[in-house]
Amino acid sequence: MAIPFPDFSTTPGVAGRGAFDFAAQLAFAEISVSTEKRADLISFVLPACDFEKIAAAQWDALNDNALVENPFYSRSFVIGGLGTIDSGDGITAFAVWADENLVGLFPLRNVFGTAHGAQNIYQFNGAPLVHRDYANEVVLAWLVAIRDGRLPGCWQIPDLQLNTSLHHLICQTALRCGLSLAVTNTYCRPQLIRLDGGFEAHLAQIFSKSRRKEIDRCLRRLREKGTLRFERAATPETVRSALEDFLALENAGWKGRAGTAFLAHGDHASFARAAFTSDATGRGTMIDTLLLDDRPIAMSVNISSGSILFTPKCTYCESLRNFAPGLVLEYLVIENFYRGSDFDRMDAATLADDHVIQGLWNETVPIGTLYVGSAAKTARAVYLARAKSALKPGAKLLRDYLRSAWQLASQTESNS
Fold it and tell me: How far is CA 343 from CA 188, 250, 303, 309, 409, in A?
């Protein structure tokens, strides 16, 4: 069989190339699947240095046909991270090919014997890329690799949507393979879908009267200050320009002062410029901007995957906070969503319950961290994760105290 990718088996440090005996494992797992798409699978555990050897067209095709959309595992996002903020983090990937197609990609980092779905602080979805036409075969190959010791004995998938066909398939297959499952860190994430009746129906059913009055008032006051307009950048050139505006606006606010803006760290800024890109087809990043006399006063960075548009980053001009430019932009984004047809759904990419956007969007989906592996290793991983979670509030208090003490000392020194 001709394989349209480099011979990874000759690359130093690659662990485990091999053909997957699908028929034998299928009989073991007792899973009923269609044989129309059955194929001989070949899988690798790839080191980060080999990610760029995967043909861009194959990676993009897998992204476009994934059972669950995840733009945070797109080629630009993953490779952008490897060259900047994820450099040296020991990221690898379990990759699966069927015939001449890349049909599965499971990025991971090994943390004390547990495979963590690779996720930096700007990736808000840990769902692996599994081709919808080969989903049963790919998930089975991955879980058998866990069971048989080719991969770490427990796998953690963070921020996975729990009501999807991928989650159900993983759970069903894992149990039939004798693996254990656990879910932690559950929360609800807002999503936006179109209601019958359009934008006006959405306002009437979802927005409270007080919220509508607030937005109307802010719109009126902003329009009194100048020309107000909404703009979406989607072409490569306009996205690059809008991203620089976003970086500057974010850095001018509280994130810049706190050192958490992209521009506060050179490698984070480099990551943003590598990850938030658009191609000629409109795939990838779109940036929405609220402009006042052609000056950006609120912006949101969106990334698309299939029929879903994710909204991972936003910022606004703090000098205009009394006019709620961020809220006004969100109102206009919803209006634009109802006018268009490019996307069926928007995902807020939030990481906790009770986000303010839940009062503006009309649906929520369950999110959690899924663990799958041997009983002992899964129990250990869940115990360590819960212990770490219990320590977080104390760690945050200590961090805030040290930051305040440092700021006070700096101010005292400057005044002396």
Answer: 21, 27, 11, 7, 51
